[in-house]
UniProtKB/TrEMBL annotation:
GO terms for biological process: microtubule-based process. The keyword Secreted does not apply. Residues 279-414 form the Tubulin/FtsZ 2-layer sandwich domain. Its cofactor is Mg(2+). GO terms for cellular component: centrosome; microtubule. This is Tubulin epsilon chain. Its main location: cytoplasm. Belongs to the tubulin family. Keywords: Cytoplasm, Cytoskeleton, GTP-binding, Microtubule, Nucleotide-binding.
Length: 450
């Protein structure tokens, strides 16, 4: 069994990461009734003997003693990390795997990348190596960060570069949360474009997610609940839009529902690495089959069914409808319509009691309405994991290498140019050592060419 390490950077990265670990623990608890440390748990958790303190040895078999997340938490403001350490998950994180500062990056990519990157480089490398040493077969690093802030975009992409230098053979999957047009960070277009240059060059796969799409999904769910269309009984063991059923019930924060959707994407993405299935899909197979050219590695994701993710007791969507939904605009995690764009490749990761024949039947049914490039008409990759999400009979994650991602990049470029034409706020970046105006034009070129 392989292991993966999660590197969560910045406020957004740590908040999403916190939801991921909470939901992952609940998912494993629902399956692992005997409390035995097994291969499924080992993929993301160490089992540590803490009887002689937190530095005890790892235990590879037998009863669960103390689970520690294979994670590195980084933020240049300590507020969010301190909150996590005072919450119900405080014992899941190794105190030696935290890197924090107090002043933050001031919404400036250059501060995160150039100043904090250099300042904390050795510390980050040391902690990454320490985490890797606890893995028997390290397969993947998952980076979770936002594109609009200073730490997430700047230091997040600095860490990505370090991972390529230190662990060139280990896959680098990046979950990047893109800001909306109404973002309250004025410099977010600069930060996002500067970060994208690094993602283009150093990531194996990028899963772009737009805040606007997450907000629309959550609002739709709330509207359906309030209108009474879906009933109003909350499922206590559902995972996506509620924190109900977690270790300790805390007041839900404004972004928890949105963060849970991203966390659920990661749970489904890694389900084959954690559980058995008749058609397991390894993480390296995603990169191998969905990325035909090095820089075309942005994968548009969709989750379905949304209704059963809405914490309401409703009849499950018919299986065939679930497949249809995965290709509809309403279920995409970016503002895009893949059916009216061109597919380079597509992966379907199904969980629950679904047969290979169901998969093939639905692919054949949907094929005529989907446009694939001429040189990859059979560009499908499929995975079946027998363990469904908690409280659900089945679920589907679709990952599409599709040209529908282009409008997101064009809109980002347009917002960048509105500032850049006036050279607005540029001096905040240029006063940082190593930053020149050419950094902006060089960063913009690959975004325009996507």
């Amino acid at each position: 069994m392989t292991q993966s390490v999660v590197v969560q950077v910045g406020q957004c990265g740590n908040q999403v990461g916190c939801r991921f670990w909470d939901l992952a623990l609940r998912e494993h608890a629902a399956v692992n009734k005997k409390g035995i440390y097994d291969e499924a748990l080992s993929s993301f958790f160490r089992n540590v003997d803490t009887r002689s303190g937190n530095n005890g040895p790892d235990i590879y078999k037998g009863k669960i003693c103390s689970l520690k997340a294979r994670a590195l938490l980084i933020d240049m403001e300590e507020g969010v990390v301190n909150e996590i350490l005072q919450g119900p998950l405080k014992d899941v994180f190794d105190s030696k795997q935290l890197i924090t500062d107090v002043s933050g990056s001031g919404n400036n990519w250059a501060v995160g990348h150039k100043i904090y990157g250099c300042q904390y480089r050795e510390n980050i490398v040391e902690k990454l190596r320490k985490t890797a040493e606890h893995c028997d077969c390290l397969q993947c690093f998952f980076i979770i960060h936002s594109m609009g802030g200073g730490t997430g975009s700047g230091l997040g992409t600095f860490v990505l570069n370090l991972l390529e230098e230190e662990f060139p053979e280990v896959y680098r999957f990046v979950t990047s949360v893109y800001p909306s047009g109404e973002d309250d960070v004025i410099t977010s277009p600069y930060n996002s474009v500067l970060a994208m240059k690094e993602l283009n060059e150093h990531a194996d796969c990028v899963l772009p997610i737009e805040n606007e799409s997450l907000l629309e999904i959550v609002n739709k769910i709330h509207q359906m609940i309030n209108s009474g269309k879906l009933g109003s009984t909350v499922k206590q063991n559902s995972l996506v839009t509620s924190s109900a059923g977690s270790a300790k019930t805390l007041q839900e924060k404004p972004f928890d529902a949105m963060n849970n959707i991203v966390a659920n994407l990661l749970l489904n993405l890694t389900s084959s690495a954690r559980f058995e299935g008749s058609l397991n899909m390894d993480l390296n197979e995603i990169s191998m089959n969905l990325v035909p050219f090095p820089r075309l590695h942005y994968l548009v994701s969709s989750l379905t069914p949304l209704y059963t993710l809405a914490d309401v007791n409703v009849p499950s969507r018919r299986l065939d409808q679930m497949f249809s939904d995965a290709f509809s605009r309403d279920h995409q995690l970016i503002q895009a319509d893949p059916k009216h764009s061109l597919y380079l490749a597509c992966a379907l990761l199904v969980r629950g009691n679904v047969q290979v024949s169901d998969l093939r039947r639905n692919i054949e049914r949907l094929k005529p309405s989907l446009h694939f490039v001429s040189w990859n008409q059979e560009g499908w990759k499929t995975g079946l994991c027998s363990v469904p999400p908690v409280g659900h009979s089945h679920s589907l994650l679709a990952l599409a290498n599709n040209t529908c991602v282009k409008p997101t990049f064009i809109e980002l470029k347009d917002r960048f140019m509105k500032l850049y034409k006036k050279k607005a706020h540029l001096h905040h970046y240029l006063q940082i050592d190593g930053m020149e105006q050419s950094c902006f034009s060089e960063a913009l070129f690959p975004v325009v060419c996507q």
